[in-house]
From TrEMBL:
InterPro entries: DPS_DNA-bd, DPS_DNA-bd_CS, Ferritin-like, Ferritin-like_SF, Ferritin_DPS_dom. Belongs to the Dps family. This is DNA starvation/stationary phase protection protein. It comes from Dyella mobilis. Transmembrane segments: none annotated. Residues 17-154 form the Ferritin/DPS domain.
């Protein structure tokens, strides 16, 4: 049965392409945050360990919501490390930086995800896709808030 939600197929594909980038950013940020949760050390261990756990749980749920929105648009969602690696601009961390570098990397990651969110909202607006724009506006606000909270630790 054909998808008929009031958005042309070409527009759904364009929006899904942007959502796929956001999904890749979200999943990459999830992996990095979870790794930092496991490996953080230093005088701020307890607060950062707890904060990172809250953040990676939020990102995990967000990834599912984004992937499901891609499916609503009748496009298959990317789901492999290699696909995510091609779509994201968040740099992978193969080592274990100190706590301050962890926080700096997460700030940068959330800022990248915020920029990707803005581009996705613009694509959704052009096509009249209020559902995607609404969902991604929530993601944008979450990334901006998390970046601010993490940045505050560095002052």
């Amino acid at each position: 049965m054909a998808t008929s939600i009031g958005i042309a197929k070409k527009d759904r594909e364009t929006i899904a392409k942007q959502l796929s980038k956001l999904l890749a950013d979200t999943y990459s940020l999830y992996l990095k945050t979870h790794s930092f949760h496991w490996n953080v050390t230093g005088p701020h261990f307890n607060s950062l360990h707890t904060m990172f756990e809250t953040q990676y749980n939020e990102l995990w749920l967000a990834a599912d919501e984004i992937a499901e929105r891609i499916r609503v648009l009748d496009v298959f969602a990317p789901g492999s490390y290699s696909q995510f690696g091609k779509l994201t601009t968040i740099k992978e961390e193969a080592g274990v930086p100190d706590w301050k570098e962890m926080v700096e990397q997460l700030v940068a990651g959330h800022e990248i995800a915020a920029a990707t969110s803005r581009a996705t909202i613009k694509a959704a607006d052009v096509a009249g896709d209020e559902g995607t724009a609404d969902m991604v506006t929530g993601r944008l606000k979450e990334h901006e808030k998390t970046a601010w909270m993490l940045r505050s630790l560095l002052k």
